[in-house]
């Protein structure tokens, strides 16, 4: 049990550090991309709602999300 508890604790710490790194990377994005990411992944808004609120086209929102996710995946070696 002790080993399992230590592993679980270490895994939570590691996940928290990774999350902080991702948040830091999102904060370094330009203002438009940052707002899109916060609305999409923090506020759980649809691309349609984001486009209406920001006065941008749906396709633009989806493209920025796609490119931003790709950049994050490359930076953190995720999904390759």
TrEMBL record:
It holds the Pfam family Sigma70_r4_2. InterPro entries: RNA_pol_sigma70_r4_t2 (IPR013249), RNA_pol_sigma_r3/r4-like (IPR013324), WH-like_DNA-bd_sf (IPR036388). One of its GO terms (biological process) is DNA-templated transcription initiation. GO terms for molecular function: DNA binding; sigma factor activity. Residues 22-72 form the RNA polymerase sigma factor 70 region 4 type domain. This is RNA polymerase sigma factor 70 region 4 type 2 domain-containing protein. It comes from bioreactor metagenome.
